[in-house]
Amino acid sequence: MTTPRPFGLALCAMITPFTGAGELDLDGAGKLAAHLVAEGCDGLVLNGTTGESPTTTDAEKTALVRAVREAVGDGVRVVAGVGSASTRHTVELARSAESAGADGLLVVTPYYSRPPQAAVEAHFRRVADAAGIPLMLYDIPGRTGTRIEPETLLRLAGHPRIVAVKDCAYDLLGSTKVIARSSLAYYSGCEELNLPLYAVGGAGFVSTVANVTPRPLRAVLDAHDAGRTAQAATLNHLTLPLAELMMASGLPGTVTAKALLGTIGLPAGPVREPLQPADRATVDGLLAAYEEVIRAAH
């Protein structure tokens, strides 16, 4: 079976750079996007959780897509997060992102209202019907409170513009079933599952950690593609301490990614409230783990 990769293999869930005053930094966004592509990213996912979508305006979201599209050119997939708790608002965001030059849309399950599965399915179909570009559905029940059940995904797979899933459901069995029974491209949204999901037919990853170590993360899947499965496992082990510190240490990935990016001289800027910056001890620990990954990669 050939695994579909509608958005490429290695995608970064990119942070949204801000100026020191907390305003949108479009120049910094363009520079960071170009850097990530040069370091091995096939695509960039903007305005997602890592991109602080809850605290950016609709106008900022559209401006970010336009600036990154201009910075990276047409050969790089730009996927725009357009999720919201409202179907009508999601459709509006989808149309704006498409007009700004996005190649695809990341659409999260409506949150807080906890819609039943029939309503979840109707929501995604409504957005897909309104869009002219493909959708990646975002299954992250730990944040939204609602799962996209495997049977719902299998039904949605029949829609011509629903082509992929960003998988943060922590249900490898369920994901494997959908991969086996549909043409949906599964992208890991949890770094510790990048390799396991890929090994059962996943398409790649959408990674927050890729903001700082895109090439080492991609190298894991490249080794697997080359048939060097033992090397892939070894390379994967090397990335896990940093991934754990960034994603499972009690701080949001946005906070840890921006802390590291600022330390290594890449555009980032502050986080917006209610998020708060990492303290000095946390930054020092992140930097030590980052440097270890970089040393090991060379």
Automatic annotation (TrEMBL):
<feature type="binding site">
    <location>
        <position position="50"/>
    </location>
    <ligand>
        <name>pyruvate</name>
    </ligand>
</feature>
<keyword id="KW-0457">Lysine biosynthesis</keyword>
<keyword id="KW-0704">Schiff base</keyword>
<comment type="subunit">
    <text>Homotetramer; dimer of dimers.</text>
</comment>
<comment type="pathway">
    <text>Amino-acid biosynthesis; L-lysine biosynthesis via DAP pathway; (S)-tetrahydrodipicolinate from L-aspartate: step 3/4.</text>
</comment>
<keyword id="KW-0028">Amino-acid biosynthesis</keyword>
<feature type="site" description="Part of a proton relay during catalysis">
    <location>
        <position position="49"/>
    </location>
</feature>
<dbReference type="InterPro" id="IPR020624">
    <property type="entry name" value="Schiff_base-form_aldolases_CS"/>
</dbReference>
<feature type="site" description="Part of a proton relay during catalysis">
    <location>
        <position position="112"/>
    </location>
</feature>
<comment type="function">
    <text>Catalyzes the condensation of (S)-aspartate-beta-semialdehyde [(S)-ASA] and pyruvate to 4-hydroxy-tetrahydrodipicolinate (HTPA).</text>
</comment>
<keyword id="KW-0220">Diaminopimelate biosynthesis</keyword>
<protein>
    <recommendedName>
        <fullName>4-hydroxy-tetrahydrodipicolinate synthase</fullName>
        <ecNumber>4.3.3.7</ecNumber>
    </recommendedName>
</protein>
<feature type="active site" description="Proton donor/acceptor">
    <location>
        <position position="138"/>
    </location>
</feature>
<dbReference type="InterPro" id="IPR020625">
    <property type="entry name" value="Schiff_base-form_aldolases_AS"/>
</dbReference>
<comment type="similarity">
    <text>Belongs to the DapA family.</text>
</comment>
<dbReference type="InterPro" id="IPR002220">
    <property type="entry name" value="DapA-like"/>
</dbReference>
<dbReference type="Pfam" id="PF00701">
    <property type="entry name" value="DHDPS"/>
</dbReference>
<keyword id="KW-0456">Lyase</keyword>
<dbReference type="InterPro" id="IPR013785">
    <property type="entry name" value="Aldolase_TIM"/>
</dbReference>
<feature type="binding site">
    <location>
        <position position="206"/>
    </location>
    <ligand>
        <name>pyruvate</name>
    </ligand>
</feature>
<keyword id="KW-0963">Cytoplasm</keyword>
<dbReference type="InterPro" id="IPR005263">
    <property type="entry name" value="DapA"/>
</dbReference>
<dbReference type="GO" id="GO:0008840">
    <property type="term" value="F:4-hydroxy-tetrahydrodipicolinate synthase activity"/>
</dbReference>
<feature type="active site" description="Schiff-base intermediate with substrate">
    <location>
        <position position="166"/>
    </location>
</feature>
